[in-house]
Amino acid sequence: MSKQELVVLGQTDTGACCPGLVSAPLGDEQAADLAKLFKALGDPVRLRLLSMIASRAGGEVCVCDLTPAFDLSQPTISHHLKLLRQAGLIDCERRGTWVYYWALPATLDRLAAFLKTSQTAETTG
Question: Checking phi first, is residue 98 left (phi over 0); if not, alpha (psi -120 to 50) or beta?
Fold first, then answer.
């Protein structure tokens, strides 16, 4: 039986729309979409912000809790958060004077599905 005839059990729709790194080459459109996500994560401040937001108990965090963690001005933090939002990695909601942020699991799952390797690929690569 060839690999093309095998059925992958437990594969989600996310994996179907975005093949994993070792399962199939990316098309132009998929590569462009994923590049936007990786570009947004290519800055250490944005990567830390996403980590702080995604790991927060309760699933959301106030910008007032993010800013003190960095030696950057509030407008700079807001700029980085805006880029993460534009990439579709996080979303937010204003509540009074504060803005609350949360990670978008579907986008994070898409990145994880792309980066995931199978055990077969790990042992043969």
Answer: beta
Give tens-digit pLDDT for 66-95: 999 999 999 999 999 999 999 999 999 999
Under 8 Å between Cβ of 101 and 91: yes
Dist. CA 62–CA 98, nearest whole Å: 7
Locus of tokens 């994923």: 34
Amino acid at 73: S
Q: Are strands 90-95 and 61-62 parallel, antiparallel or unpaired?
A: unpaired
Contact in structure between 33 and 86 (CB atoms under 8 Å): no
pTM for this model (two decimals): 0.75
Phi and psi for 92 in degrees, rounded to 5? -150, 170
Half-sphere exposure in the Cβ direction for 9 (13 Å, CA): 0
DSSP state of 21: T
